[in-house]
Structure prediction request, 490 residues.
Amino acid sequence: MHTEIARPVIASYRAKPGPESDRNPLELALPAIKSDDEWLEQLAVAPVFDEAQLADPAYIRSYHVAGLKDLCVPAERGRHVARRVDQLIRHGLASRHPLTREHFRLLQREYALAQESGHAKKLTFSKMCPICSFSLIGVSGMGKSTTMESVLAAYPQYIFHPDYDLHQVVWLKAECPKDGSVKELALNILRAFDNVLGTTHTPRVTNRVTLDTLTAQIKLLAMSHHLGVLVLDELQNVSVRKSGGREELMNWFQELVNELKLPLILLGTFKALSVLQLDARHSRRAGIMGGATWRPLTRGPEFDLLLEALWAFQWLREPGELTDVFKAMVYEETQGVIAFMVDMFVVCQLYALSHGKETLTPEMFKQVARNEFEFLQPLLAALRSKQPNRMAKFEDVDAYDIDEIIERHRQLIPKATPSHSDERPGTSLLARAASAVRSTLGLSESEARSLVASVLTAAHKSHTGLTQDALKAWFKAQEAAKEETHAYAA
Prediction:
């Protein structure tokens, strides 16, 4: 079934492998156990900042600002998750030594089941075995998926052991489908295997393939490739299923854990709790390694740490001091959701650059938060209320494209160096603004002049302000056209 083998890392061992329990080649090929400081360094993500960049014109500095959107300031919660994942991978591999007779016996059994998958027996809950190994639940925008991806990046995903002809997949990550289908989840896992191994295990035609067949294939792949841990993201999608869908999924998880001793990591928003906690009997099985819950930050050390880190990455020439008033404003407008803090801070800097400002103010941050992130206001209002019934309506954050928002603001920054001399009104003002608009948007000369003329008023005293208003009008028209297209398609 193999069509192309991806390039794996060649195994390098810390000690000589053997059949003894402490000589498992799968474990010996993993990187050494990291210290707490090493994990914090692994999780940290920050752009390069050089004070010399402050001499660049505003539109050049906007590129540096955009790189700040991926900032990650690791805290104790991230290190805790990293340590749990590391323990899971090593603990799981310890019970699946590939050089023992037991492993070959189990592998032969899974192969036989895969050959006769149409007759596979459907398992139900066991009172003795936990369903999942670790669950990370929290509000959208708190960095669950980003942190998990950074942790997994500390390990080579695919290792080849030439001395033993072993292909080892250390970790695999897949998303629960939006329709909550267990069958589609199984297909997503097979697709993830194919992406790593360069194989074609996923059937091209899926409507006639049974879940039992897919499950048998997953179990065979997981065992033959010594899968270390399976990470399933967006678990809350399963909650959209009608009664029975969640039970089916939990039974399916149980089957993987029982027969393969395969650790599972489940990621999701608070809606995923309805999947994990079907009733009192099942809720105690949050995992043998426990679970973690990530809520929005409160006003405290972790909030201050992140905001101070953000403040240090300013490409404004007069950044000023991070005051208590500014901190209070950021908390009021973000309610401690990490993604909102980072995204709004980035857009606030771009807003300042597009308006010729070199200092951030609390009022500016509030204006950006309320106008540029208007779609988040119902959720933020619910979070401010602290009322559970209101907050329950907004358990998940609708996805938004921060790259699109950043690009829109970057294009509002004129690429020409503004002149500080008095500008002549009338034709000269229109011509200079049209030239800037044409350069920014790639329009024809007539299109640019027509656009600028449509927004020109007596209040415009400089070509810079006129250019910004013309660009805003263009982007507004583009958004309106896009919404009209979507409405027509619906």
Q: What stands out?
A: The first helix runs from residue 25 to 28.
